[in-house]
Amino acid sequence: MKNRAALFRSLAAVLLLFGINIQTVQADVKAPKKEIIKISEQGVKPAVLNLEGADGSVFFYNTSGDQFMSFSIPWGDRRAHCATLNLKLDEDKVLRSAKAIRPGDFVLTCFPEPGRYEYQAQVGQNKFKGTIIVKAYESEKPNKRNEKSSKGNS
Question: Which residue in 85, 77, 87 sits closest to 115, CA to CA?
Answer without folding.
Answer: 77
